[in-house]
Amino acid sequence: MPTEPTNSSANKRIDAPERATEALAGGRRWSLAYWTLFVCLSALGIAPVWVSDILPVLDAASHLHLMRIIHEYGDNLLYQHHYAEVNAIVPYLTYYKVVDWLQFFTDVEQANRLVLSVCLLGIPLGVHAYLKSIGHNRWLVLGVFPWMLNSDFFMGFFNYLMSIPVFLFVLAAHVRFLRKPSLLQASLVASLLIFLAVTHYLLWGVSLALLPLLAFVLGSKKGWLRGAAWGVRDIGLVIPSILVLMPWFLSYFVFADGVKTPDQAVLHGSTWMQRLLRIYSGQHLTPLDSITQIFERLFNRFAEQPAHIRGVADLIFRRHGELISSIWLIGLALWFIGTVKRRQEKPAEPEPA
């Protein structure tokens, strides 16, 4: 008895929905695994904030005292006698005001722990948003979790710590704006830059130069004129944040409202250029010192170390931070090389029906 001929094309059309269903189910399983691991590592990252009675960070006490002064200033005559209230938008404002508002519901220490936890959680979330915006594998975010408890956390640089996730979200929003410009996306980038400016000025200053530069580099792929136009356009994104901080800059550096006596003029400088040089002259850390700290103190800021590495055994058993830093930087370099060499794969042509 002859067998009936099979239609391979029809079978492929029948199997296609099944394969799509299996792929969808597999994608959901991987997504569940990803977010489960994400939540577990995030909980591990913020655990040190809640397990101790006193935060083991250097500047925590001074920050807590300042935030308590801000919250109780209106009702405390002693604070009013020794401190002057400044009605201006200044850097560092965001962290202090958020903790100030939370103090209406809890004490200053618990409010600070809550805000600090959100800042730490924002680091992997910001990296996740950035990876999604540039189209890279989201699993790369797993390499960021060791950075949650970074040296800035142990030093107590709470304001700067809050600015890190904001900076990452700025980058993610800017990438989406470059890919699909719109007034709504431009407003989002400008708003995030304003938020970053009143959180900490360092990464905001980086953004002022980085965003137009990225726009120029990406736009120049379509021609130098296009790159120049994109760079000039993105300068407009940073102007609102500059205007927000301009009164503070003029008051503090140019007009020097805080310099009231000749002694203060000698200490801080009588001109705005002298005051800028006094602050940014590198008397604490030179630029070279700051760069070498990335390698030496990335994961063990307070570890005692001899002057020179004494062989591989010394590196492995006594310099854990430098070892992890080395592996991290090598991985980062390999990731960068892979990103540069990445080529868009040509999609396979569909088979004829």
Structure write-up:
With 353 residues, the protein is mainly alpha-helical. It has two domains: 31-281, no CATH class; 282-338, no CATH class. Helices cover 70% and strands 0% of the residues. The chain contains 15 helices and no strands. The chain has helices at 8-51, 60-72, 77-82, 93-102, 108-134, 151-155, 158-179, 183-197, 201-219, 224-254, 262-268, 272-280, 287-296, 311-318, 320-341. Helix 5 (108-134) packs parallel to helix 7 and helix 7 runs parallel beside helix 9. The radius of gyration is 26 Å and the shape is globular. Residues 1-5, 259-264 and 343-351 have low confidence and may be disordered.
Structural class: mainly alpha
Q: What is the chain-wise order of helices and strands?
A: HHHHHHHHHHHHHHH
Give the biggest beta sheet. none
Distance between the termini: 29 Å
Instruction: State the domain count.
Output: 2
**Percentage of residues in helical conformation:** over 70%
> What is the subunit arrangement here?
single chain
Tally of contiguous helical segments: 15
Task: Tell me, briefly, the overall form.
Answer: globular
- Which radius of gyration do the C-alpha atoms yield? 26 Å
Q: In terms of per-residue confidence, which ranges show pLDDT below 50 for 5 or more consecutive residues?
A: 1-5, 259-264, 343-351
